[in-house]
Amino acid sequence: MEISSVIINQLLQMFFIMMFGFVLVKINFLDMNGSQQLANIVTKFVIPIVMLISFQQDFEANQLQLLWSAMIGALAITLSRIAIAHTLLRNRSKIDRYAVVFSNTAFMGIPIVLPLLGYEGIFYLSMYIVTSAIFQFTYGIWMLSEGKQPITIKSILTNPASIGAFIGFTLYITRIPLPGVLYNSLDTIGSLSSPLGMMLLGCYLARSNIKDIFLVKRNYLTVAVRLIIAPLVALGLLW
């Protein structure tokens, strides 16, 4: 019950921060260029820093085993979503299928997990973020470009999420702690992930036509698959 209360409280806080971004756009204080710059800061710097910091803990063999289990779970969930998208939405657009397979794992996951479980929670969440990022830069690119855009090893290994996790994992395995001042500085930057991520969602919402979204009936199947069927399958796999 306590955890549920914390989650609800955190979601409400996220909602109000999201509304702040919504208002900034509506009063023309934040334009598209500003929103894009914020998005670049979050995805290319803040999120990788959060993931790097999450690996700054004492090495434990049991913890490492759980980390691999988290990666296997992330892989199973992603593959199940691909199968679901191509089975239930095979006649829908590639955007619909992409929406079912991939989610805002970092934007939504980190703000919820960090206050609940701290950096140890992000430690395990990082496996899903990295797995999702790798699939986005491979399968996602292939699907959206319909096989026309080449996929390279560089694009897989040099995406921001992977870089943050790889550096953090290397420090974890080699048991090299960051200096206190550097850790505290990166921790402060990482704390920006929640407010900036929610502000960006508010910005995107402000530029969307809400009425059109709800009036397009074909959207409801995609939303049902994305928010109900895929999560239930994922829960079954994890169980």
Could you tell me the radius of gyration in angstroms?
A: 19 Å
Given helix and strand content, the structural type is: mainly alpha
Fraction in helix: over 70%
What are the low-pLDDT stretches, counting only 5+ consecutive residues below 50? none
Beta-strand percentage?
under 5%
Question: Secondary-structure element order, as H and E?
Answer: HHHHHHHHHHH
Number of helices: 11
Task: Name the descriptors.
single chain; 239 residues; mainly alpha
Question: What can you see in these coordinates?
Answer:
The protein has 239 residues and is mainly α. The chain has helices at 2-26, 32-54, 61-88, 94-101, 105-144, 153-157, 160-174, 180-190, 193-206, 210-215, 219-238. The chain has eleven helices and no strands. The longest helix has 40 residues, at 105-144. The chain is globular, with a radius of gyration of 19 Å.
Give a quick precis of the structure.
This protein is mainly α.
Secondary structure layout:
Layout: H1 2-26, H2 32-54, H3 61-88, H4 94-101, H5 105-144, H6 153-157, H7 160-174, H8 180-190, H9 193-206, H10 210-215, H11 219-238
Helix pairs in contact: 1-5, 1-9, 2-5, 2-7, 2-8, 2-9, 3-4, 3-5, 3-11, 4-11, 5-9
